[in-house]
Amino acid sequence: MIALIKLTFKLLSLPLMIVCAGLSLLAKLCSNLSGYILSPLILFIFGCGVYTVISQQWNQLLLLGIIELLCISALFGSVLIETVFDWFYSILKGFVQS
Question: The whole model's pTM is what?
Fold first, then answer.
């Protein structure tokens, strides 16, 4: 009886695994693309920050620092989402294989 109930949950988890694997692949693709796009932007903002320190424009330095932190947190967030999807997929995979 328990095996039959477990089998139904395993069958219901298969579409969820497919969706989770697809979202993980999409998140990985977005993470790589955002790395290629945001990395030069972060480097440029850092260079502008060095210039504002030399010219002592502290208000602009604060704004550039906030923008830089937002870019870095966007990169970190995309990797975090990718990791969560991979973790959820591995949990479902372990459940189906048990």
Answer: 0.77
